[in-house]
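Following up on my earlier message about adenosine-5'-triphosphate. Here are the inputs again, as you asked, copied directly from the submission form:
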Amino acid sequence: MILQMDHIRKSFDGVEVLKDISMSVDSGEVVSIIGPSGSGKSTLLRCATFLEKIDAGEIRYMDKAAVTTNNEGKAEYVPHKELKLVKEYFGLVFQQFNLFPHYSVLKNVMDAPVHVLKRPKEEVREEAMELLRRMDLESRADAYPFQLSGGQQQRVAIARALALKPSILFFDEPTSALDPELTGEVLKVIRQLAEEKMTMVVVTHEMPFARAVSNRVIFMDKGVIVEQGDPELVFGSPSQERTKQFLRNYQR
Amino acid sequence: MSFSTMLSSMGVGMLRTCLIFILTLLISLPLGMIVMLIRRPGPLPEVPRGEGTLKTLAVRLWRGFLIVLRPVMKIYIAVMRGTPLMLQLLAWYFGPYYLFGMSIRGYRFPAIIIGFSMNYAAYFAEIFRGGIEAIPKGQYEAAEILGYGKTQTFFRIILPQVIKTILPSVTNEVITLVKDTSMAFTLAYNEMFSLAKQIAASQTSFMPFVIAGVFYFIANYVVAFVMEFIEKKLSYYR
Ligand SMILES: Nc1ncnc2c1ncn2[C@@H]1O[C@H](COP(=O)(O)OP(=O)(O)OP(=O)(O)O)[C@@H](O)[C@H]1O
Ligand SMILES: [Mg+2]
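Thanks, got it. Here's what our run produced:
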């Protein structure tokens, strides 16, 4: 197991947004998370990546505990140093890209490996250029984010995440901030990564993409996982009424 | 008194004016940054679990420091912005004598520098705070996911962007400072403007004021030029 989340609970101001959620992700798996707005998809990813603290539950990466629950039922995070190591297992691609505007494309990709992991610059530069090649952005290495289209920016963000060689990559609606004609180029890159057996969890509203690319689909509603399984099953013959209803609304 | 004698007797005053200006900037800019770091709203730092004792101790100290100093900084900024600079200069200079009966001989120049620096640090702190608050949350989150530490995030990601956004406001403040240096005459410090007044009175001539006006104008022209140059340097991104 790359990621294991058990009995996750998370409230905002007394309102429970994640209600006893358990999920796991195996090596090489591509998992799509779908569900209506406000169902807790982003919150789940933010908890998995420690941007939000869970109230109760357990999170493990590569069988290493990052969060456990103590006797009083409260979540306890491992000490800072250990948590920092666990953080190296994952990457996250944001809906709004969040590139560093004052760095060139190449520097956006290189900066963390060089200044966080303290790896040699020349080696990192070669890898970064290779990543940009894969993202079809080689010629834009010296451009600044504001000079790029949204689709290009998101591909830089993906390259930036990959430069740290994560074992699992999370995406939170990677194409939702893009013009419709630009979503294709980003989805293509994610599909390519799936073919290379990159472990990924993708929150998305792109149903055809989720159906075609993922090994497993999770449907969330109101803070619980309503249904999950093979995409053909979930999309083709959903067993839960709420799933059917949600997918019907998408058909139009 | 000829024009050139006037100019040369005002020359030493010009140097003093420049000295006030430069020292005030050198002190108030970093001081404003420190005030902002203390006063900035947001949660108190959490004491890390299971960290080496030295770091835990440092975080604990900083936490306690913040709890005490945050309200103090708020009052400090309110007073600095809410009272005339002239009054503040008088208070800094005569305060030690009236409050503690201390001798204030030779204290004139330090009092001026302290007065200006404390006043400008308050304004700079507010400008910095505005700049920091304008940085989207996503920048912090991206940095955190990529593994940057708190210090690295601030110096590599946040600060460069803050500097760019606050530059126009800082320029305004610096230009005001050039003109405000004339307020040192309150403490009878012989910087350029005080000398201009003295010479104007003794020679019954308006010329010294013209010279002073031209001096301030040129000084601010240089300031604007330098700041514009920096702005241009930083215009490579948006
Ligand atoms: N920081 C926060 N403070 C308070 N409430 C929050 C916060 N973040 C999320 N919520 C609430 O938690 C619920 C779940 O939000 P979340 O963003 O996880 O939904 P989502 O499934 O990602 O929706 P969308 O498809 O619109 O992105 C919502 O009701 C939201 O208002
Ligand atoms: Mg969301």
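One observation from looking it over: Residues A 12-13, 17, 35, 37-43 surround adenosine-5'-triphosphate (ligand 1) (CB under 6 Å). Hope that helps, and feel free to reply on this thread.
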